[in-house]
Write a structure and sequence with these properties.
heterodimer, A: mainly beta, 5-stranded antiparallel β-sheet, globular, B: mainly beta, 5-stranded mixed β-sheet
Chain lengths: 639, 463
Amino acid sequence: MKRFAAIAALVMAGCSAPTAPLPGDLQGPEALALSGDELYVASTNSDELRVLELTSDPRTRGFASAPNPIYVLSIPVVTRPIALAADTDGQGHAGPYVFSLSSVSARLGIVVTQDKKEEAEVALPGTPLSVAARSTEAGGARVYIGLALGDQQGAVATVDVPAPGELAAASLAPTVAYPLGRAAPAGLDLSPDGSTLAIGDRLVGAADGGPAGGLIFLQLDGGGMSRLEVGGPVGRVVYSPAATRIGEACGVIEVDAGPPADAGADSDGGAEADAGLAVESFEAGHFLYALVESTGCPLGERCGGIQVVDLDADGGPSVGHPLQVPGIATDVAVAGSAAVDGPSGDLVLGGANCNPTLLLAVPSANSAVYFADGTNGQVFNAPSSPGPSISSEQFIGPDGGPQADAGGGPDLVDNGVLALGGLAAQTLVIQYEGLLPALVNRTATLSAADTLVDPAADFPALGVQAGDLLELPQGCSNTAAVVADAQPGSLTFAPAVADPGCFSGGTYSVRVAGSEPYLVAGSVAGYLGRVAPGGTFTSTTAYAYPQPASQGPALSFQMGAGLSNPAPGAGWTYTVFGGVTPLATPGGPNAIRPAQAIWAPSVGRFYVAYPGSALGGQISEIAPELIAPGATNSVVEYQ
Amino acid sequence: MRHPLFISMLAGAMALGCAQENIGTPPPAPGQPFAGFYFPTGIAFVPDASGGPGFVYVVSSDFDLRYNRGTLAAVDLATLADAIPATAGATPAVIADPHIAAQVSIDVLGGPVAVYQAAGRPPNERRIFIAGRQNNSLDAVDVDGQAVRCALDASTDDCSASAASLGSGMVDAYRPLVVGNQVFVGGLTAQDHPATSGMQSVSSVARLNADNLSDLSVRALGPPDSQVGAEAVDGLAVVGNQLYLGGRATGGVDENGGALYFNDSPLRMLSLDGFTTAGSATYVPLDAQVLIRDARAMALSSDGTRLYLVTHSPDGLAILDVSPGLDGSPRNTVVGVADLPLGATELAVIPRGPGRRDVVAVTCGTANVLALYDDEIGRVVAAVRGLGEQPFGVAVGPRLSASGAVLSGVRLYTTAFGRGDLAVVELPNLDDASTAAVLATLGPNENCLNDTVDARPPECPNK
């Protein structure tokens, strides 16, 4: 009898031993969708989906197996799926479907999650770019698809999908329900109450200087459409979930250790004292996060990053400055009421114990994932980061020749005021009749001797003023060409270009001159402004890393009397650093170039798709605790 | 009278001598069975003198060395006007006759081409450069419509005989680029240390005079430019006075067993003013912005402010702002990355006109598609199929009506390395990529030459 018991125990032990996780065999995963406790992963280059089962026990978390359990489950779908959406009801409960979108074959794939199988495809007009879905009371779903229809026109189409049991008999066809005019709807998200479709318009500005994309809000009950400029063309858009903050906000980035800072965020529920802890509540949909894509930025302007839009602000939606991260932001995911426990309990940042409430994870093309406060768009600063600094003043001689510094400069090291987060680390120049950074050796045409046309150049935005000087290539006589008027796309001169025939489709540059002849520019930030001798310089450009408005301008200083012997190009350079080193975690040792990110509330983890993993692709699981300094846990890679 | 045996021995020796000079099977001439494109790679479009449809010139690389030479073949598009459908049908027209008007022999293992228009010459008169990877030489062919001649010796149709050597130290010569009246070729220089190890190769670039292929200068980008590493130079482009060099991952290991694949950023700049000067090559630090480990072809945007860089691992198109910075040198700021289908290789820029952003066509050899990236939307908006297996080269030409009027949009010409054909793709509306379609493929399937009869495709006449 003992022998049988021993054998039985051995067998049971064998059965209960954890099995090795199945390899995901991912091929360039670009998109994710969460349906309940299942994370659907688009294996984009192999035209299929995988399912990562988000079990509560991390040791059993892994890819779902095929019916033959030695193989990973494959769900063949549309060609090259680049976007996924799972339908949910108003409370966030998972519906019966996951939808996959193919831009290159213009098709929508319909996967029934219970069967783990694509059971229908729908042909779409134009080039589909984005997808969102909402469950219906009848057990089906309504799917919204953002379409580029050609000739720079965009639209949102809908597909009504019945309950899975009726799918086989259904005739599915898209309806181009919402024409958007000039737009490229590259991102869609439904508001939590289902009344509004937020659309990221990715189209760049028109050649005639028309506005670049931005946000479009579509009232689905027939209430119309409204636009909101957020500083550039937009890709992904994400509504915030409901969140409650207990404790101190991370609203102010402190550098020096000190008492906890006050919250700067707007609040729905107001702040209350409860056992000594402040409590703030944010309803779902209070904020919208928009990925402003830097490839769409106008000439010479930096516009990329994550724009935090406060939809409940007094007076209508409030837009600040985009949240920048090193590299290029590729997506944004938001966690509501994320529990962040550092080694000592609470998250400690710069001496302040705080709770981020709405925690943003922003993957960057440099493969790191950055974290920010979703209530104000502020990145978390590394505790060891030094404060703002201006150093290393150097005199630079005029173009093509040395010259001694005869004084008259701003003495920025002693007199400059650089705000925390105002500028990223870079070289700053203050230069007499310096060349405007975005207008060096540009190609243009002279429509007349007194008119230059460059449709892509928004001259006033790039810093051109009346009195500035046109510079043509060597050999052209242009000493008298002075800007009389600057408009988007064109400059007029008085006097006119002396030798227009010499120019003939060549290149031009513009130097600052006139009443404010000193250029102020950064090697990263580009044009920051200009200043007159003896004048006060106050930058009006966005902070590199947003801070409360009370901090004042990013950079200010008092200019000296100017060079005693001014010559074009002469001036000073400085090394500047705004004192912010954004906190980040790598996506894992094999992670290359992330695509989409998503928050899974049931397990409290971010998931980031890396199509460029050394093994063909991977999903990185990132715990929010990783932002706590001294955190010892690490990223988990699913490959 | 000489002894008959002596005469026959003399004849035999002469024959042997001839055979040694031109050993192996020459590629089929136009009109012969299986004449066409054989493992085609580089391609160029050149307009003709009379405003007609123009010509495309196609490199056959002879990748498996079936023949003793590669070829550069001229396809007269005017002769195809009736054969190529005016609009796309349900399936592309399959035109077995490749319509080769003329061809010359070149070195084997030729790749991408560079096209040179000498000062004062009309646009239909061009010189096409092709680097041969086996012999590490540069072939030069002058073209003018159907006239295809070896640039340095018009008396022969074997241009490999007059090809310029790129020097004994250079290996893996791959891509030429014309700058002014100079032609550059990227590759590797083997330092071979320890001896016979094949290790310690360093990226290198050769420079020659484009008019006479003289004045060879090879710049090995080794120490003191030590950050460059041993990556074969692939993509080439010029921004201002800087030559941009893209590094192709070699997948090898260094002498310490480290993977070269993971070593360095594969993009660097070399000053044209100091081509031969140590230290004039600089590493472009991209890692803080985007991880790129393997760079392929690159090209400047039509307005000159952006560099489109094709990458592998993962396959994508990186977009860099290369407009001048404060010091006048390019900013080298990565402003975006678009993921591409597998096997992204070559690209062609399709301008939309002043003030507009480009469309970029990228061949994706593993996925067998031509991807169209729209820089106004920032997305891949189409992936054209039906080009043939392993599309490689891509060239852009105009769309013309039957009467010769220029129509909107463009025609794209692609080579299929794995099938041996030339595809004609139409993109009538640059603002609607869904209008892109393959009109026709030209040429016999090279797989019909497979030595295993059963492995030949069904359409082969010799199956």
